[in-house]
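Input record (one chain):
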Amino acid sequence: MKIYLRIIERHKVSLWARFAHLLIDRAVIVLLFLFYGVFSSFAYQFLNTTIFMESINKMSQMNRFEDILITSFVYFLYTLLMEYFTKGKTIGKYITGSRVVSTDGTDPSFNQYLIRNIARLVPFEPFSFFTEDGWHDRWSDTRVINMKNYLAEKQAKDDINSIGSK
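The corresponding structure, as predicted from the sequence alone:
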């Protein structure tokens, strides 16, 4: 059974911050695809390399389902790898000063990040955003917290606990 610390629950980010994370991270994905298109064009123009342009042509001919599948896969990889290698942050979370932590206050494991991101692929999961915790948080025993407020309270508690000890 996982431990749920009250300090973590008190410092969860607002729904608006979570919405900002979503918008910023989706914008990053759009920019990644845009960058790939520009890179492909330059590779074709200056290096006479056609492999990238061929992939762009194939992408432009995809149906809606294939487009959603590819975009979802890229978003899945982006959030999984960003959160894992930056200890719980994506670009959206960096901008808002937020971070993913386990409910017991520790850094999440790779499995927790994996469960978080697999849960995002569940249809209607975005609507769980309107509940207290999204499904991806509940299923992985993680929370997104405001780091500045969390660290300030944690430091104050540590200071109080260290009074009288040397």
